[in-house]
Structure formats: C-alpha cells, structure tokens
Amino acid sequence: MPNHPDLDIRARRLLRTLIAQYLADGEPVGSRTLSRSSGLDVSPATIRNIMADLEEAGLVASPHTSAGRIPTPRGLRLFVDSLIELKPVPRDEMVRLQRELPPGPATVRDLVGNASALLSAMTHFAGVVTVPRQTDFPLRHIDFVALPDARVLVILVFSDNQVQNRVIQLAKPLDGRELEQAANYINEHFVGLRVDDIRAHLLRELREASSELHLMLTSAVELAAASFAPQGEGEGMLISGQTNLMAYSELADLDRLRELFEAFQKKNELLQLMEVCAKAPGVRLFIGEESGFAALDGCSVVTASYGAQGRLLGAVGVIGPTRMAYERVIPVVQATAGLLSEALNRAATAL
User: Fold this and answer.
1) Rounded to whole angstroms, how far apart are CA atoms 260 and 295?
2) What is the average per-residue pLDDT within 116-120?
C-alpha cells in the first residue's frame, strides 16, 4: 500500500480531520465543516481543490447523495499507518481487563474465551480469539492403560493442567509391566517438551536399533510413536458478541449480514486469517477487502498475537465496521493480548 509521501502537510491535516469527523458521526464531511475543524487558514476554494486531489488519489470518495466526502479503505489505511494518534487505554478499562484475565484455576480455553468476551463487551464489536492447540503446551505426565483388543488408553497431562485422552491401536497387546516401563521412560526423558518435539525425539531413537527405548520395547516400538501422532484438536477459534454488529448501519444490509454470519458459523476462512495474525508478533489490521475474504469487505479486523514463555500461541482481536475508533480500539486489543500473555506466563510459572 503506497504511503503517499507526495501529500503535503495541509492535505494530510485535512484528511486526518475528515476521517476523525467521519469516524465520530458516520456522515459525509463537507468543505465548510473541514474549514471550521481543521484550523487551517485557507479558503473554502483551496479546501475543495485539496479534496479533489485526495479523491483523485483514491483516499476519499463522494457518495451520490451528498456533496461531502467519506474516506475510502485506502484512505483509512493511510490514516492508521501514518496519521493516527493512539489513545492510552482508560484506567477503568485496564482495571477491568486485569481483574477479569487472572490465571487462577482457569484453563487456557477459559482465559482466551474471557479475552474474546471482554473485547466484545468493551468495543461493542465481535470478539475473536484463536485457541492454542493443546500440544503447544509442554507435557507434564503420561500414563498408559491397557484396553481390550490390543488397544491402549494414553492419558496426557499438559503443563496447563489440561488432560487429553487418546486411544491407540497396537499390532499386539502389551502387558501392564511393559506399559509401565514405557510411561516411566517417557516421563523421565521427555517431560517439559512439547508433543511435536517428543515425537521427533522418539522417531529418531526408534531408528537407532541400539537405543534404550528400542531395546526396552522390542515387542511394541510403535507404542510411543503412536501416542504422539498428530490428531485433530477440535474448535480452533472462539467468537463472542456477533450480534453486536447488527447495530451498525454500515452492516445492516440483510444479505451482507447473512454472508458475515455464515462466515462466523463456518469459521474456516476466518480461522485462516487469524492463524496468519498469530504467527507474527504485534498488532495486525485488515481494512475492508484487505482481508481477502468477501464476507469481511465491509469490516475491519484488528488483532494482536499472544503467547507464553517466548512462544506465540494465538491471536485475539475484534471484527467491526470499517468506521471504528481505531485510535481507541487498537490499544484495547493490544492491551488485552499483553495481559492474556501475562496471565498465561503466570499460570505456567505456578506449575
């Protein structure tokens, strides 16, 4: 996206004034209003000429029913990138976030769900958050329980105290002693590592015929590898406050709302977008068609990544109309992600 370095100080000031006025009341902004609000000592004719230049540059547009102008998504992008003055999160909102995002006994899913609901309540938009994969957390303990027909129940306890049960099928049954040996070996050597890392270690050891694990499990070398095989982990994203969006006239068209709510229900495309945001630190912002998904063309998506112990785990954010108070929403999303990270770090340290 071009940064329009050719815009002079007057043009930038007028554009900032127009966008601030539009974001505040949602109405097209006329030259007289700009003349009064911008503080520039220029004639109305000069303002009209500058507005014409901004329109030619694709930064503002003239609705057919009004002589005033509104910012385009391209103009909003320039505003957010270089003209915006972010406002600190009000103290009462920070207190609310700190109070309602404690580590406590809550699970990670509870914490991220709280973050999504809080953002929705504080911004009056839809709050969205990706749920970390359980296997993003280090292993705390593993147990094996023999089942009929050569099956084994694998009980995985992770560092966030979540428990995951898996049933694996072996080529032949193992007795309790062999299962206990395998569990003891893994608990001794691999606790504190994540499942993907454990699987890589195990596969490497199983390729070495002289390894301790291979000799110990000569009759069932597949047990350990099967225990950590990739598996689907259910819902990867939580959405709160979708119905808030029905209150905004920009999104009130029934066809648009239907398409947007279908996207919320299916989640696939939105989850892809959020996962992209989760892979990069800091705030990400998509205005209108920048998201690449038609259902979000009339919306802006503001996200920030969160993590724990130096590892990115997901993204949290809001979806609302393109006419939103970016100077307030961006800091709230950023603060929520930061406090969520702190809560996850404290929870991990407490174990």
Assistant:
1) 5
2) 94
Kindly report the pTM of this predicted structure: 0.76
The DSSP secondary-structure symbol of 322 reads: S
Rounded-to-integer distance, Cα 196 and Cα 138, Å: 10
Selection from 61, 28, 48 nearest residue 288 by Cα = 61
Cβ atoms of 104 and 223 closer than 8 Å:
no
Residue 224 has which token pair?
A: 């350990």
In the chain, the N- to C-terminal Cα span, in Å, equals: 46
**Nearest-angstrom CA–CA distance, 61 and 18:** 11
| Domains by residue range for the chain, with CATH | 9-83 (1.10.10.10), 91-133+235-349 (3.30.450.40), 135-227 (3.30.390.60)
In this structure, which long-range contacts are made by residues 2-6, counting pairs with CB atoms below 8 Å and at least 24 apart in sequence? 3/78, 3/81, 3/82, 4/57, 4/59, 4/78
**E strand segments, the chain:** 60-61, 70-71, 126-130, 139-147, 151-158, 163-169, 237-240, 283-287, 299-308, 311-321
CA-CA-CA-CA torsion for 201, 206, 208, 213, nearest 10 degrees? 90
Question: By C-alpha distance, which of 348, 266, 268 is closest to 306?
Answer: 348
Q: How many whole angstroms separate alpha carbon 243 and alpha carbon 250?
A: 14
Token pair for residue 227? 């225990």
pLDDT at 4 over 70: no
- C-alpha span between 321 and 287 (Å, rounded): 9
Which stretches within 135-220 are classed as H helix? Answer: 176-189, 195-206, 212-216
β pairing state of 139-147 and 237-240: unpaired
Contact 24, 37 (CB under 8 A): no
Instruction: Name the pLDDT band for 230 (thresholds 50, 70, 90).
Output: low
Residue 258 pLDDT greater than 50, yes or no: yes
Q: How confident is the model at residue 330 (pLDDT cuts 50, 70, 90)?
A: very high
